[in-house]
Amino acid sequence: MVEMTYREALRQALADAMTENPDIILLGEEVGRYGGAYGVTRDLIKEFGAHRVIDTPISEAAIVGAAVGAAMTGLRPVAELMYVDFIGMTMDQLANQAAKIRYMFGGQIGVPMVLRTQGGTGRSAGAQHSQSLEAYVMHTPGLRLAMPATVADAYHLLRQAMTCPDPVVFIEHKALYTMKEDVDLAAEPLPWGKAAVRRAGDDLVIVTYSRQVHHAMAAAATLAAQGIEATVIDLRTLNPLDFDTIRPFVERAGRAMVVSEGVMTAGVGAELSARITEECFDFLHDPVVRVAGEDIPISVSPALEAGSVPGPALIAETALRMLA
Amino acid sequence: MVEMTYREALRQALADAMTENPDIILLGEEVGRYGGAYGVTRDLIKEFGAHRVIDTPISEAAIVGAAVGAAMTGLRPVAELMYVDFIGMTMDQLANQAAKIRYMFGGQIGVPMVLRTQGGTGRSAGAQHSQSLEAYVMHTPGLRLAMPATVADAYHLLRQAMTCPDPVVFIEHKALYTMKEDVDLAAEPLPWGKAAVRRAGDDLVIVTYSRQVHHAMAAAATLAAQGIEATVIDLRTLNPLDFDTIRPFVERAGRAMVVSEGVMTAGVGAELSARITEECFDFLHDPVVRVAGEDIPISVSPALEAGSVPGPALIAETALRMLA
Amino acid sequence: MTPPFPTGSNSDLGRLYRTMRRVRSFEERVGELFVRGQSAGSMLHLSIGEESAAVGVCAAMKPQDTFTTHHRGHGIFLARGADPNRMMAEIGGKEAGYCHGKGGSMHIADMGLGHLGANAIVGGGIPAVVGAGLSARHKGNGAVSVAFFGDGATGQGILYESMNMAALWKLPVLFCCINNQYGMGTRIDNATANTALHERALAFGLAAETVDGLDVEAVAEAARRLVDGARAGRPAFLAVDCYRFFGHARKDKSPYRDPAEEDEGRMKDPVAHARARLIDTGMTAAALDAMDGEIDAEMDATIDFTIAQTEPPLASMFRDVYAPTEPEPEPVRARIARVLART
Amino acid sequence: MTPPFPTGSNSDLGRLYRTMRRVRSFEERVGELFVRGQSAGSMLHLSIGEESAAVGVCAAMKPQDTFTTHHRGHGIFLARGADPNRMMAEIGGKEAGYCHGKGGSMHIADMGLGHLGANAIVGGGIPAVVGAGLSARHKGNGAVSVAFFGDGATGQGILYESMNMAALWKLPVLFCCINNQYGMGTRIDNATANTALHERALAFGLAAETVDGLDVEAVAEAARRLVDGARAGRPAFLAVDCYRFFGHARKDKSPYRDPAEEDEGRMKDPVAHARARLIDTGMTAAALDAMDGEIDAEMDATIDFTIAQTEPPLASMFRDVYAPTEPEPEPVRARIARVLART
Ligand SMILES: Cc1ncc(C[n+]2csc(CCOP(=O)(O)OP(=O)(O)O)c2C)c(N)n1
Ligand SMILES: Cc1ncc(C[n+]2csc(CCOP(=O)(O)OP(=O)(O)O)c2C)c(N)n1
Ligand SMILES: [Mg+2]
Ligand SMILES: [Mg+2]
Description:
Number of helices of chain A: 12
Number of helices of chain C: 12
CATH topology of the largest domain in chain A: Rossmann fold
Oligomer: heterotetramer
CATH class of chain C: Alpha Beta
Bound molecules: thiamine diphosphate, magnesium ion
Largest interface: A-B, 53 and 53 residues
Number of strands of chain C: 7
Number of strands of chain A: 14
CATH architecture of chain C: 3-Layer(aba) Sandwich
Helix content of chain A: 25-40%
Distance between the termini of chain C: 56 Å
Helix content of chain C: 40-55%
Order of helices and strands of chain C: HHEHHHEHEEEHEHEHHHH
CATH architecture of the largest domain in chain A: 3-Layer(aba) Sandwich
Structural class of chain A: alpha/beta
Number of domains of chain C: 1
Distance between the termini of chain A: 41 Å
Largest sheet of chain C: 5 strands, parallel
CATH superfamily of chain C: Thiamin diphosphate (ThDP)-binding fold, Pyr/PP domains
Order of helices and strands of chain A: EHEHEHEHHEHEHEEEEHEEHEHEHH
Radius of gyration of chain C: 21 Å
Shape of chain A: globular
Strand order of the largest sheet of chain C: 1-2-3-7-6
């Protein structure tokens, strides 16, 4: 067991994988000399050299496109998109190229690349640097999608992503980088694509991922103090989506809440709500409740920013309403 | 009453609006001399001149960005994106700029532009020219989204979009351009944002939009022959989403199916399913059923293409199962 | 509002100096706002060292002109005549700010002054000037639109798409690249093989120059030439060479830079240079000091002003997603309450 | 498979002619496949008139080299040694095609021949060669990667982002712009103010030339110079000037073109030009006719081959979304049945 931050775990995953696999290269803005805008790649350039840790110009579309080409010709690129908010510039390369190449070309070749990025609120970074855009990715067949909530997952999911035969979008949360947890990096990780039950309880099920796992756990603790026991499921990957882990808990509790930081409409919560309803309809006492980001852009004002995304209070309050 | 095609109605809407409002300009690839890849803007350049019907280089991102700047400085640009599949190149300008400018700037200014485009299957155009990507747009606060199914709506929704104070993404369906219907263009249209009940029936409700309205109507006719009466609701706009029209029908029938051509996961159907479940839970006999595009890219092979999206048979078959 | 546009007769060196000095002073206060924990976040990008670009180019603009800026745009907007109180309040995320605290440092805009908006997307504001150029042509109002951006934005394809359109359509547009030699930690020669950036614009058919930002008069002169040309239908590109005196954003101490390079870079100080020139031409240090003191006092007051302002009300978050004539989005809390209150 | 790479000693005019003639003949058959209603859709873009670009550049490539093409890429792939039967079958949407009928005309690829894929997104295949260049450098395998695209793709920002990276990193990459003067209905001078396209590449620091596509030997020579340079770390750009003989896609009759211009454009026929040169140098028309006849017969057979092939089985649509080791997506029908069968 060792205590480390989410940021350190990510860095460790990159370093360990790069040591094992000489075909892994990193590329992105400021990943080298600067060490990454959030410090995840700090000093990796010293360890692995500028040919494997490649500082790029500010060219998001071509970064992703270059990663596609590298992946098709035998490298295992890990590209970094400094903020998921910049995904708009890369969506063609991501969704029309990376995601479809295996399919369009009849299975001749895959695109084993990872696009690391980070999203979410928490730094007063405003409307173009605080978004949670995973729904765009989840809606795109061909792209895998991982969103680690814990330090252990920061390490293990990233390691797993770097062995995935298909393109993986890997979205970190900017508010988690400094979070510290004890982890055993050598322990057998949960398999890729498997959700984690962070807490089990029979009164209701909260299905979530990324930073909201922590908010849900905090809410669950509050609820427990009032005698309400919630299950908290951390999806870990949104594609693949592990419904098998969700089903029995919802069938038992009969009540489910889905929580995402991204905006509600047509977001991840919509998919989870629809899916739970489809699969567990006869067990539901209540409709699945979506707790999500407001259907608005994020403000730079700290008050408005915090007010526009779910937090422990909203989750707990909603749970109490559900069980009233 | 006059018979015209969907294509002609769109063209008429552009011509009529441009005649009335000298600040409307069209810009996009091939909108001028060529007349539009699907002929919607045919000869408008002759009528309104090259300064109002502007052929652009192949620069989707800058086309949308230029429209944003034009809209902020007093024009009413109608930009054309030849295929919605190219939206990936424009997502930054669309989602980070057009959609957020009014908000980020504290309400000082809006971006009254229309982005016309077309999507969907039906022409063996392959994975990068056949998609239905409306979910990306629906998930982006600040963007309005209209998807006309009928010839009358092709005209009226486009006219309305051109008076909307906020950016509108207007997605036509490539398989509808040659569809002919009798229309009275002078008739009072349904208000912007109001769904149309294309057919009323008490056994189940089919909520859909764009081309799938026709598939749903065909299925409903088949079902009617077997004594099953379906309501078919054509949403017309996905943002705003008119839930008030949907609610009473679902409450009455207790069964709802949502149909979209776009891929199922995290798609429009997920939002509709979640929303209907939230609003009508106690009235539902069955979970809302999603009929949608397969979670795969579109093939060029006509058989695989047709097989990967809903059609009247799948809708009817699903309805029968629901009522079995 | 008739802002103090430093145009025409206002562009003598004294005025240019004064405006640069205001920018410098304001930016220092932005740093202080942050240190005092009163800024909304830490994404504050100071334009110290690049004042001549802001001031020299704005001096060439007319009241009807419009512009977009990048994330390092405070100086440009001040040079255009912004109210420093409303700017600082916006940087503090306050209701009294230009954007009511929704935008912050990277999203200040003001339609009254033709400011079509700062941008947190590198390159994101560039194509808007093409549209503004189309508007100007359509309306025949003689407006030029200027896109301000950094050297880092030359990595973004949209710059070339926009320059190509502007050249093709002969639009009244100026692309102004403030080349402070760095994009975050990346020196320009680590971002491109040919650092003579204006050559790219030439290749697309624009008029293009590079000017040394040390000399604000040279910048103003080049800008006037190119802005006037743009107004006459010859779109242009101007690179202003300067040096980013401090870190990328407030917390960055630029460990990736050679201190010797920094020392040399900071010698390229357009404010000091203009001051020296003014003294050469007969102004006294005392008179300049007096002016500086007045400016600093004015800028000090922006901090007090900002601290005294209130945060925007929580309910304002639902405002301005759509036009005021439209319904606001339903809050999540309200939705949940409605769904669960069904029975 | 050891394909007939027309490299090295194979690049004499006779071979270049032969390969161009095969491209021409194949493309004519693609047109016929469409007329016979046997193509998958009508988005068929013929490269007639641009054979010298495909053949001249491929002649400069080595077996380990890779490339991407655009929507008008049949000729390039044939020049690289593709099996015309599998190509035509793919264009017909058949299981026997290169991509089992999933890709079609605009998405043919073959890893065996280093074909990283055609693309239906204008400019979409360009940045991949930057990545391929990184791979080549990393693996030290001496491979060059060539991006083929049309003049229209010079409107796409990603081209400039990619050229900038290639120049910065000195990658073994060639950007080959097949300038057939049109992007759909837009003549190049309606798409850009400066039609000397290679000047842009120069401005980014690449080696760059424009060559007249009438003369396949000139193309081959320029290509060899630039590909060899790229292999040695000098990334390059080559524009091949030619003319799009027919419409943009099969149904387009180019009403937007002046017939006189078309007549003149079709005079720039690299196949006819090479044939004339061969006759000049002593080959007989009879010998050439015999070769042509053989080629036409081979290409005729591709149509029969294609018609005889089967469509891909419906279930194959769920294949290859993800790697074969992964579960296939659940079909919508199955999902619905499962949901409704719950009770
Ligand atoms: C599209 C995009 N990519 C990356 C960033 C992160 N970022 C912010 S500023 C910056 C450097 C910009 O350099 P430059 O354009 O030279 O402007 P400067 O900061 O030097 O004024 C980067 C990479 C961003 N905000 N937007
Ligand atoms: C991103 C994108 N924009 C637009 C189109 C539609 N389109 C297909 S080919 C084409 C013209 C391309 O011209 P050019 O690059 O010169 O190639 P050519 O057709 O002349 O070979 C256009 C606009 C597309 N396929 N992709
Ligand atoms: Mg810079
Ligand atoms: Mg062309």
